[in-house]
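S1.2 Input.
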Amino acid sequence: METPSFSLLLHTLLLFSFVLANSAEIHENFLQCLTSDSQNTTSISQVIYTPNNSSYTSVLEFSIRNFRFLSRHTPKPLVIITPLHESHIQVAIKCARNHGLQIRVRSGGHDFEGLSYVSHVPFFILDLINLRSVTIDVENSTAWVQSGATLGELYYRIAEKSKTLAFPAGFCPTVGVGGQISGGGYGYMLRKFGLSVDNVIDARLVDVNGRILDRKSMGKNLFWAIRGGSGGSFGVIIEWKIKLVQVPSTVTVFTVQRTLQQNATMLVHRWQHIADKIDNNLVIATIIERANSSKEGNKTLQVSFRSLFLGRVNQLLPLMHNNFPELGLARADCIEMSWSESTVYIGGFPSGSSLDVLLNRTPLTRRTFKGKSDYVKEPISEIGLEGIWRRFNEEEAAGARLIFIPYGGKMSEIPESETPFPHRAGNIHHILYTVAFQEGEASSRYIDWMRRLYSYMAPYVSKSPREAYVNYRDLDLGKNNDKGKTSYVQASKWGVKYFKNNFKRLVHVKTMVDPSNIFRHEQSIPAVSP
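S1.3 Output.
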């Protein structure tokens, strides 16, 4: 007579064997579909990588930017496709629909939760690394940039053509253009020119039916949705047409560092009262992290005030002395350079680095980390700041960092409903939280520390909803079901935090253009009826 435990074990083994066999069949059918339906079988076969291919691991890992998702336990794609042509994307979508494989689209690989290259159901990665051309039109101050290009590549190509054209986007040069723009995209010019999505003119997208659509053919609702409604929900965006902005031939940067012993608490508190109201040409970010104090062996907190000013130092100094004299900015703290050189400076490269570093797709550091975000509408009190500092004294905070990015200026002039990105007027600044730790360490300790800090911050940040930035993806906010449909109510738990009242319209657009929910992931816009 079989014992209950033996029956359970037998049932589990049979189920596992069935899942493996079914997965293998899906895999084989999908591969056959790709080659049989492609217009150029030889061409597409050169960009298909399976686990049996010697290059599979290197292609998979090259664009993984968070080592939390590089363990042997992380689910791996059945196939990786690195398309060379639009037709490769079209056939991949068709075959995914026909054979039930989930699509994960990756441009730069910076998704905080690894959603562009990890799934818990059978999936493949559509890696856009080969689609990275940038075409600059100096005369009309525009550019077409493919989604697989990095911000660094975009900045470099602009610099090749002009010293007075720029694009308002992020400060990490290895971030992919596709992901950056899909979620909004902010940088050190947001107070002057707004977000990346505020400067998008057109786009070309492959939809769920394999059609290539531009702004006119996709219609105003879909064009609205892709400009900040997050990636992986509405189709595969091949390229963006962007408006380049005019900047002075010379800009000024500075980084001034202060510790707690040098009145950092008072300076951060004061910063909150001026950073969103000062001249729109000036952005001063604050970067908060642990550092060594002047006393040997002791730790302290260091705040770096890092800035980009669209003008000369002789214009900046009186501006700072009139609005933020407490910082004590001196001429010696300031460096004049071109805007393109400022992207190297703000990107954290060593002093004297050439613009060529912008073409390197490998980050300066590759980390294991957890991130979160918040929006601040009233200045955090000095007592509130001191509570943050105390938490930075805990052991798990050794690799922690907070970045405060000021809003105001152009960000307050654009209505919340103009694009899906709703975080506009009323925000003093945005907070990015990260905690990094060594690969192999018990990640739960550090993630728990981050969650405790996030809980502590609740009284000091936005409420009803507690807003978050979709490009700093956070699955703690909620997620869709891996299988089956996700209700509007369930998805609203995270969706309203990212998009506020725009979430309802995003769901409506999704339901119209992808009713079968082919483009989906843990926090994709669901196809449901609100």
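S1.4 Remarks. The CA atoms of residues 480 and 522 lie 5 Å apart.
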